[in-house]
Amino acid sequence: xxxxxxxxxxxxxxxxxxxxxxxxxxxxxxxxxxxxxxxxxxxxxxxxxxxxxxxxxxxxxxxxxxxxxxxxxxxxxxxxxxxxxxxxxxxxxxxxxxxxxxxxxxxxxxxxxxxxxxxxxxxxxxxxxxxxxxxxxxxxxxxxxxxxxxxxxxxxxxxxxxxxxxxxxxxxxxxxxxxxxxxxxxxxxxxxxxxxxxxxxxxxxxxxxxxxxxxxxxxxxxxxxxxxxxxxxxxxxxxxxxxxxxxxxxxxxxxxxxxxxxxxx
Length: 265
Known about the structure:
Keywords: Isomerase, tRNA processing. GO terms for molecular function: tRNA pseudouridine(38-40) synthase activity. Substrate binds at residue 108. 20% of the residues lie in helices and 25% in strands. It is of the alpha+beta class. A hairpin with a 5-residue loop joins strand 7 and strand 8 (180-187). The termini are far apart.
C-alpha cells in the first residue's frame, strides 16, 4: 500500500534532501530508520530536492509498504528520528499517487536579518546591510508573476526541458524596524538555485547596486547575468506543497522565530 508522509526538517546539518554518495542527507536518514522498523530495504520518493542547509517546514514523500502495519508507526518513527526531522502525518493512499510528479504548487520562504543574532544562525540568513531600498525591492518582487520564463535566474538552464515557471505569488514582508525580511514565492515548479538567485538580486537592488529596470531586463530578454548573485542557503524554507487531492496546512511552529509584526511591503 502507498503512504504519503507529511514531514518537516531543519536542514542545517544535512547535505540536502536527496541521497548522495558520501553525503549526509535527510532521505538517507529516514530510509535507514524505516529499514530498521520493517527489517527490509525501504525506498522513499520525495516531493523535490532541497539544497544543503535548506529547511522544509512542509515536505511530503511517498513509500510503498507491502506488509501490514499493525503497530503505531507514527509514534515509533518520531521516537527514533533525530530531533531535526519530524513526521506530522502518515496518510494511506488509495492508488499510485506520486509525491513529486503530482504536486501542483510549491511555496518557498526566504528569511534574512540585518544584524548579528546568535539565535537565528540556523534559521535565517544574516546580511550586514543597512538602509535597504525597500520600495525598490518591493517593485522588483511585483514583477515576478508577470513573467513565465526564468531562464536568466537558473544556474544550468540548458539541463532543463524548459525554463517556464508559473509564478502564482510573490511577496516581500519586513518587520516594522526593517531588520527582518521574508521573501515569499509560489510556483508550479522552480529551477536550480532560482529562489536564491532571485533573493540575491533583490539584495543587490536593496543595496542600490542594481536597478529594477536592469532586473526586469533579465526577465524579459532571458539574458543570463555574467555573475550570479546567489543568496546563502540558510534561511530558505520549502514551506508548502499542494496536491489536487491533498492540501494540508503547514506546521507554522517551524517558523516561530519569525516576527509577529510582519508587514507586506
